[in-house]
C-alpha cells in the first residue's frame, strides 16, 4: 500500500441514482489512500484548493452527450494528471484527448481498475514534469517556459513580501493556430508563435518576463506596477501589437487573443494561484481583441 495521500478532484461526476456509483476510489487498497474533492465544471478548478495530483473528468457518452471544453482541458492537463471517465467514446475523440494531454481514458467497463490507473497516471505526470524542469527554455520561441517563469515569480514575490509593491501577471491565450496549421502546416504554427513572442517581448521593459506556457498560451510578468491602470496600459499596448497582421509565406493569417490579469497580493500570493487566476480570466475573455488580426 502507498503511504502518500493523493489529492484527487472529481469533475462533473453525477450522483448515483441507485446502488454504488459507476466510478469510485476505495478508501484503502494497494493503490490508495486518496483525498477526494468534487467540482462542477473544469472552470471551477481555478478556485479549488491547489495541489491536486489527478483530475477525473466525467464525460457521459464521450463528446456526444457533453461537449468537451478543449481549451480548459488543455490548461488543466498542464498542471495535473487528467483522466477522462466515460461510458462510451469514439476512437478519434479518444486520440484527441490524449494528444491534448490527458493521461488516460477510462471506460465504465474498466472502472474497477481506476485506483491503479489514477496512481500510475499521477506518477507518469510527475516524471513528465521533472523532465520538463530540466529544460528552462521553450525551444519553439526561445522564451522561458512555465517552470522557469514560476522560478522568476517566486523570487519576485519573495522580494515583494519584504518590499510591498504590486505585481501583475498577464496570460495571453492565442486563438487561430489550429486554422493556421490546417491551412499552412505545422511549421507555420511555429512561425506565428515566434512572431507573437517577438512582439510581446518588444512591448515590455527589459525587467519584465515573457514566457511560453504552451502552444497557444503566453504569460507576461510585470514585477513592478504602481496600479491596476498600469497593467491595463500594458494589456492594451500588447493587444494592439498582436493585432497587427501576421504573414506566413506571404499570406495573412487570422489570429485573435484573449488576456487575463492577476495582481499580487489581492488575487493570490503564490505563483500557481496568480497563474490560475489570470488563465481563468483569459478563458472568459476578460480582455480581447475586437476583431481578428488582419480582418
What's the topology here?
Layout: E1 6-11, E2 34-39, E3 54-58, H1 70-79, E4 81-86, H2 91-100, E5 104-107, H3 114-133, H4 146-162, E6 167-175, H5 177-184, H6 186-202, E7 209-214, E8 217-222, H7 228-243, E9 246-248, E10 251-253, E11 256-264, H8 271-283, E12 287-288
Question: What are its keywords?
Answer:
295 residues; alpha/beta; Rossmann fold; Alpha-Beta Plaits; 8 helices; 12 strands; disordered C terminus
Walk me through what this model shows.
The protein has 295 residues and is an alpha/beta fold. It folds into two domains: 6-133, Rossmann fold; 146-288, 2-Layer Sandwich (Alpha-Beta Plaits), CATH 3.30.70. Helix content is 38%, strand content 22%. The chain has eight helices and twelve strands. It has helices at residues 70-79, 91-100, 114-133, 146-162, 177-184, 186-202, 228-243, 271-283, and strands at residues 6-11, 34-39, 54-58, 81-86, 104-107, 167-175, 209-214, 217-222, 246-248, 251-253, 256-264, 287-288. Strands 2-1-3-4-5 form a five-stranded parallel sheet. It has a five-stranded antiparallel sheet with strand order 7-8-6-11-12, sandwiched between helices. A hairpin with a 2-residue loop joins strand 9 (246-248) and strand 10. Helix 5 packs across helix 6. The longest helix is centred in the middle third of the chain and has 20 residues, at 114-133. The protein is globular and about 60 Å long.
